[in-house]
Amino acid sequence: MTHELTQILQKAKTMRRGELKAQIFGLGHAGTELAKRVAVIAAYFSLRNKQIIEALETQDIEKAIDAAAKAAYLQGRIDDPLHLLAAVDNTNNLYLSTTGATGNKPAKTPGKLGDVDFPLSAPSAKNKAAELSGITQVGFTILKKDVPSGDAKQVASGTKKCNLLSSVNGQGFGQTQAELAGAHEILGGYITIKDTNTEIDVTAHNKAHTVESGKHESWTAAHAAIMVSPKHTTTPYINETGEIHSRSDMTKVLQAVYSAKPQISGTDLENKVIEIFQGKEAKKLQEYEDAVNQVTIPAGVAGLETDQTLAAVNDEDKLIAIRAFYEQQVGAAYGKMVATISEASNKQTATAPADCGKKLKKVYCKESDGCKWNSTDKSEGDFCKRKGEDEQKAQGAGQAAKEEGKKCSEKKKQENFKSPDCKWDGKNAKIPVLL
Questions:
Q1: Distance from C-alpha of 318 to C-alpha of 316, rounded to nearest angstrom
Q2: Poorest-confidence range of 22-31, 73-82, 374-383, 405-414?
Q3: Does residue 121 fall inside a structural domain?
């Protein structure tokens, strides 16, 4: 169980590191198509990490604790009788031995009781590679099969009988006056000592994990808890495989990023994956991972003493510091770009004439823009003109009239006056408006 939790936490860390490395890679390619791709991948790794942590927090840590508690209780039920039986100092301890009525006493050794695999000591928490190979879905496969024939489990009487496994008669541990009132389980119910002078019962190896009313309940409870305890090879801890668009978590990310209604799915989803990743095959993600791992982080960034590739940087704190460094670089570059664009825009605005004629409401016709509203009672309409435009028109009209007047005045005789734009005033030809 310790091994499984360790493996699961390693997977969560891998997803978190993948998210950070994707973000660093994206900052280094800001403004490119690659940035779009890595943004999706970073979100994918983030979702995977979140699901692992949530599964542990909401159910699997509790399941792991429950399995450990029930297994520890069962081990306690097993250990004491085993130590007692192994300490019997005569030739009559035939417990779990198949040597028969004349067999030798089995000796308790590390990991063994006689010739039977049965560790007595708790495994070290540091032994992360330990596996529950003797406890599977079909039961406790580590247990020795029962041998029902003859007196293989226990000698009925005589000097070879193990008196600790009998409570009756002169050869039992209870003698006649203190025999058991009823059958009694030891080793958590694996062995049942009878209240008669008969052979012990041993639970079948393929029955200890099943429910049999009132029997071997600690074995059954431990097995059930162990079977539902978290395993790194099950969902949501196991890695997704297959084509990119077929991965359920990638689908969730794409539906969140491209929040269309109805949600993107089917062929549209497949086409979006092809657009982003230039293909839909799983190898496209591997190509991305290879590209990320080859990125070189220069010495000095995040305290790195030498240039290192991202593949070599797996400390989360350093990855966060590297990301912060590149965020500052991109932020500074973006700030300069915005300032340059703003400066250019201000220059263009200052030199370009205001398009006053398009301002059809008085509230938008501002003198600061070089415009003037030419109506005293209207607040809407075609009254916004460039300042000085009317004066220029009036000046132009006056100049034109002056020129025309000059032309008319040159006609000194009425008989020479033929222009339709002039009128004879009795002495000279003049423009009608000046009469």
A1: 5
A2: 405-414
A3: no
